[in-house]
Amino acid sequence: MLITLLTLFHILILVYWLGGDLGAFYGSSFMVDPKRSAAERLMALKILNNIDMAPRSMLILAFPTGLALAWAKGWLTLPGWVPAVVALASLAWLALAWAVHLNHGGGAGIKRVDMAIRYIVLVALYGVGLAGVAQVIEMPFFIALKMIVLATCITLGLVVRRQLVPLFPAIREMIATGPTPQTDATIAQVNGRARISVVSLWLLLLVAAWLGIATPV
Q1: Each residue of 93-145: pLDDT tens digit?
Q2: What's the rounded Cα separation, in Å, for the pair 173 and 179?
Q3: Rounded CA gap, 215 and 209, in Å?
């Protein structure tokens, strides 16, 4: 029963991650459409930002559900309290990420904590994943690879954040003056770069899904 529930939760991570990303991807086309009014484009941005919390949440929940499933199936030899503590820590991180979102990206303190956690998790996943591939740490090969894939997904998420930085001044200018060729060009350019990163992330998720199904030792 436990394994069935954990498997279901882990599958739903992929479903909501890809589904949310697809919704945000489609919504971004309205944001860059010069035929749309500023109000319509701002509404598209708001919807996109809210939908995007689904994949952001799934990114945080992917590791604790995967770890718990690997423990339950006996793929990883761990004390039972380890996946429990990781799950609680991940829920705390999830609450923090939602606090940043509901505060509209404000609250410099909690935002810095959220970013610090991402970098710590990123380094830990790469380190443990690479150690697993090299068999410095004993674990199934596919689990080590999935850790590296998840770390790369976090990396791409951070890249997207950097790529979106020029978007916000353009949005503020559009609100103040209305759409202009300059703001339209900036928004389209930022969106185009971010889409490449997002599509790359989708491919990584498919790789992770294949690894979870094929479970190559």
Answers
A1: 999 999 999 887 667 788 899 999 999 999 999 999 999 999 999 999 999 99
A2: 8
A3: 10
